[in-house]
Each structure stands twice: as C-alpha cells, then as structure tokens.
Amino acid sequence: MQTISRVKGTQDFTDLTLYSFIVKEFEKQAQLYHFDRIETPILERVDLFKRSLGLETDIVSKEMFVIDTADKSEQICLRPEATAPTVRAFIELKPITPWKVYSFGPMFRYERPQKGRFRQFHQINMEIIGSASIAQDAQLITMLDRFFHEKLMLNNYALQLNFLGSYEDRAAYYDVLRAYLEKIDNVCKTCLQRKERNLMRIFDCKSDRCQEIFDKAPKIADHLSPESKKEWEKLQEDLSLLSVSFSYNPKLVRGLDYYNKTVFEFVSSDLGAQNAFCGGGRYDRLSMELGDSKEHPALGAAIGIERLMLLLEPMKDKLSLPQPAPLYVVMPLSGDQNPLALLLADTLHAANLATDTLLDGDSLKSMMRKANKMGAAYALILGDEEQQNKTVLAKNMMNGQQEQVAQIDLVGYLKQ
Ligand code: HAM
C-alpha cells in the first residue's frame, strides 16, 4: 500500500527550539510595549477577506483555501492572514481603544511553494486599533526594529518604507498614474490587467522592462495633500529621532487593498526571492469596510516565522537558546524489572527530573545506543541484581563512569 505524504507546501517541524525562541522573545517584547495576547479562529467566513483584502488581490482571487460547509449554507476558509480577523473581533468585542493585541499561529495561502514560501506558514501578528497618531506608526516600527536587531541580533536586513497617503490622495494619484500609463504602450500583459483592476500593484511587476518604466512613473509620495505630506515627514523625523534606519521605496505598495498612509517591509538579501520577513502598515478604514458604524484608525504588522527562522538558523550559536534539561533514561534489563522501572521513573518525575523509560525489552547494547542518541545524561540500569539489592546502576553518559546507587538515594544523587 502506498504511504500518504504531507500536503504540498506544508511542513513537519521536528526541532521547534528556534520557533519557540522567536515566539517567546516576541511575547516579552509585546509585553514591554503593552500588547495583550488574543487568539482568533483559524476558520473565518470567506466574505471577511473578500471585503477587507479586496477582490482583485492575489490572496482573494487565487490563494484561498475555501470550504463549503456540509449543508452548503456558507463558505468558510482557512485564514490567509490575521488583520481582518482581528478587526472583526474588535468590532464584535468593542474593547476600549487603542486596542493593542498580538497573536501567532498558522496562515494558509495557495501559493507556489519555494524557499521561504509555504501553503501553511506561521505568522506573529500585531495590531493597534483605534489610534490615528502617526507617532504610533513610528513606535510600532521601532518596536520591530529593536526586536530584530537587539533581541534576535540580526544585522543583515533593511527597513523599506513608503507612504500611500489618505484614501483621497490615492484616488487623485490614480488619475495622475493612469494618465502617465496611457502614454506608454509596452508594459507586460499582467500590468495591463492590473492597470484596469488593481492599479498600484503594477509596481510589484517582476519584469525588468516594466520596472524601468515604473522607475520614471509619478510617485504617490510626491502627490500628497499638505496634511498627508506633514504626516509623512513627521514619520521620517520620528524614525530618525529614534535612530531607526530606513530607506524610502516608492514602489512598495504591498499586496493587500486595505492599506493607506504608512506601509513598510523588513527585507533581507539572505532570503532569496521571498525577501520580506515582516510587513505591515496603516489601515484606517478597514473597520468601516467590515461594517462598523465608525472609522477606527489602525495599524499593524506581521512577521513570517519561517523566514525569520531561515535568517536565524546560521547564527543560532549567538542566541541564548534554551538548553534542554538533563535527561535520565531508565533501562530495565528484562520484563521482570518493568514494574520497578515504572516506579523509579515515577519517583524521578515527581522530583522534576526529565526521565524516559525503555520498556520494549531491547538488549542493553541497543538501549545504550538509544540513550546516546537521545543525548542522555545518565543511564539508569535495572537488572536482577539491582532489583534484589534495591539499587540502580547509574552510568554517567559523558565520562562512562558507573556506580551502584541505593534506589532510595537516587534523586539526591542525580541532583548533586
Ligand atoms: P503579508 O505581507 O502578506 O502581510 O505577510 C506578512 C509576512 O508573512 C511576510 O512578510 C512573510 O514574511 C510572511 N509570509 C507571507 N506569505 C507567506 C508564505 N506563503 N509563506 C511563508 N511566509 C509568508 C500580512 O499578512 C498583513 N496581515 C500584515 C499586517 C498586519 N498588516 C497590518 N497588520
């Protein structure tokens, strides 16, 4: 019979040390900046994303994992991102604002898998809902930059920043950009489609020729209202004040429709084609678009955990990763000693000593090999002799020394 392999674009994590380290360190950072943890469901209604991300975005048009409910009464999906669910929760819960929350967990997008790109991937997501001040944007970006640089010791990355203006600025800019594109007839087919359906996304085009054309295109940051211009300048000033390095990328538009004003990405050349390991921005109208009666200006970001792991893997030694507790392995030499092995392991567990018990009747040689592979600190051997004398043969796996220890003294002996 054929075996069943894992679904394309998914992974089995076997060593979660780095994953847990990233999440734990982020949780400390989130507490420092006064964010609370929330958890929203993995299943959401498809309409939530259609309305928030936009019908023409890649995620909604081709990347959703959609499920018809058994009675066919509605379509639900595996969440592709966490911002829309968080805003939905905000509207339902009506918490006091600003609501500063973070969450982490799996997201799902039907993309072509490649290095750093999966169909099930994991994000740490954070949102600040109910704050209009652009100084908030500077603080969120600073929190992330300090996290990457100071807590995770990352150096080889850059922060890219753009300012998309207000929704009105954007509408006016669309006319300018369209007029510019009308004069150009050699952009690619995808750009021609985007020109009609999702204009700003032309800047994401992969073709070098299109990119050359867009280098000369009018930039939104040069077409801002005086009020937006002031905010854009303030954001840059605040980041400089806080010594956060950034580069202005006029082509950074992000693939989701809900953004206005600030958009940013943390990128690293060490990642290859999928170079962004964190992205975010402001989305002042999303709560209204999801049916709330009033606007709740908001901003947020998400970190791609797999991409951060790729960056941290080669420099793991520099990080203070948690060391596993010493492991003790109990080895009954025959089935007769199994009950004693269970009792002894129970005593060690009660004393908080990490203990495994080999109960399958393997030879001593094979059990020692297993203990070695497990990285055991001690092998605790129980044969007829030990059973009769109420002792254990405790073998130090580092130096090979062994000693008969009274069973009653074992915990004290191992804790020494
Ligand atoms: P996003 O840029 O779509 O933004 O995703 C954020 C990060 O998730 C990316 O920078 C990347 O590191 C990671 N990521 C995205 N897709 C994949 C994939 N297929 N495989 C592996 N990693 C991936 C958002 O999701 C927004 N909700 C961020 C946000 C929060 N904006 C405001 N608040």
Description:
Helix content is 37%, strand content 21%. The protein is α+β, with helices and mostly antiparallel strands. The strands form three sheets. Strands 1-5-6-11-10-9-7-8 form an eight-stranded mixed sheet, sandwiched between helices. A hairpin with a 5-residue loop joins strand 15 and strand 16. The chain starts with 16 loop residues before the first helix and ends with a helix. The model has no long low-confidence stretch (mean pLDDT 96). It binds histidyl-adenosine monophosphate.
Key traits:
416 residues, alpha+beta, 8-stranded mixed sheet, binds histidyl-adenosine monophosphate
Strand content: 15-25%
How many individual helices?
15
Low-pLDDT segments = none
List the quaternary state of the chains: single chain
Structure summary, number of beta strands: 16
The overall pLDDT average reads: 96
Helix content: 25-40%
The profile of the biggest β sheet is: 8 strands, mixed
Distance between the termini: 52 Å
Radius of gyration: 28 Å
Bound ligands, each once: histidyl-adenosine monophosphate
Shape: elongated
**Strands of the largest sheet, in order across it?**
1-5-6-11-10-9-7-8
Category from helices, strands and their pairing = alpha+beta
